[in-house]
Amino acid sequence: MRVGQGGSGPGAQAPDGSQVEMYELAEARGEDELIDAAIAPGSSILELGCGTGRITRPLLTRGHEVVAVDESAEMLARVRGAETVQATIGELRLGRRFDVVLMMSYLVNVADDAERLRLLRTCAEHVLPGGSVVIQQQLPSQLARPVVLESEHTRMEISDVEHLPGNKVAATLTHTRDGQSWSQRVLTQNLTEEELSSQLAEVGLRLDEYLTPNTAWVRARPI
């Protein structure tokens, strides 16, 4: 089962169930600052799973060159200023390499080892020698229990949490903004450092460092 498979709410949905209109309304929450601080000025970036360009736009503003990849034509139609490629991540082969390959949104936590290897192999195939693969991973605490998270503009409820064998967890995420609600059922797998390091090594990458103290952001490099 793919992360995010199955969703409901107004507007178009991506093949994985992600709601296009919801992502169009979402803003960067400091991710661009973290990424910018970790890479060289004017880096070439391959952004895997760019969605509607929530992080693409601020990275372009910061002077980086971004190629934005997503499997959803509806998502890509919202991206402005970057070269876009419609493709599934596991099958992407551009024949080009980049200073940075960026894979956020907990895509690495897909609850299927073979699919995760395909994603990581795409990262390895597209990063320059000496370059960085920057990965955002889910923390075990994030879907540990039902909770409601509220900010100035949005409300997110995590409900129907199921802890499953193999360090997997299923939950329903409901986002509400401006009187509209979108729900999505997700199935993810929390990864130990040993598990992530092992799969990185299998595709020719090594875990180089954590970019945040909580280990949510990882930098890997070619071996």
Q: What is the mean pLDDT?
A: 92
The H-and-E topology, N to C, reads as: EHHEHEHEEHEEEEEHEE
- In whole angstroms, the N-to-C terminal distance is 30 Å
- Given helix and strand content, the structural type is alpha/beta
Architecture of the domain at 22-139 and 191-222, according to CATH?
3-Layer(aba) Sandwich
**What is the CATH superfamily of the domain at 22-139 and 191-222?**
Vaccinia Virus protein VP39
- Radius of gyration, in angstroms, nearest whole number: 17 Å
Question: What is the subunit arrangement here?
Answer: single chain
The coarse silhouette is globular
Q: Give the low-pLDDT segments.
A: none
Q: What is the highest CATH level, the class of the domain at 22-139 and 191-222?
A: Alpha Beta
User: What can be said about the biggest beta sheet?
Assistant: 7 strands, mixed
CATH topology of the domain at 22-139 and 191-222: Rossmann fold
**Strand-residue proportion:** 35-45%
Keywords: Methyltransferase, Transferase
Domain Methyltransferase: 45-131
InterPro entries: Methyltransf_25 (IPR041698), SAM-dependent_MTases_sf (IPR029063)
Protein name: Class I SAM-dependent methyltransferase
Keywords:
globular; alpha/beta; 6 helices; 223 residues; 22% helix; single chain; 36% strand; Rossmann fold; seven-stranded mixed beta sheet; five-stranded antiparallel beta sheet
Account of the 3D structure:
- This is Class I SAM-dependent methyltransferase.
- GO terms for molecular function: polyprenyldihydroxybenzoate methyltransferase activity.
- The chain is α/β, with parallel strands linked by helices.
- The protein has a domain at 22-139 and 191-222: Vaccinia Virus protein VP39 (Rossmann fold, 3-Layer(aba) Sandwich), CATH 3.40.50.
- Helices cover 22% and strands 36% of the residues.
- It is built from 6 helices and 12 strands.
- It has helices at 20-25, 31-38, 56-61, 73-76, 113-126, 193-202; strands at 7-8, 44-48, 65-70, 83-86, 98-103, 127-136, 147-150, 154-164, 168-177, 180-189, 205-210, 217-222.
- Strands 4-3-2-5-6-12-11 form a 7-stranded mixed sheet. Strands 1-10-9-8-7 form a 5-stranded antiparallel sheet, with no helix packed on it.
- The longest helix is centred in the middle third of the chain and has 14 residues, at 113-126.
- The two termini are 30 Å apart.
- The model has no long low-confidence stretch (mean pLDDT 92).
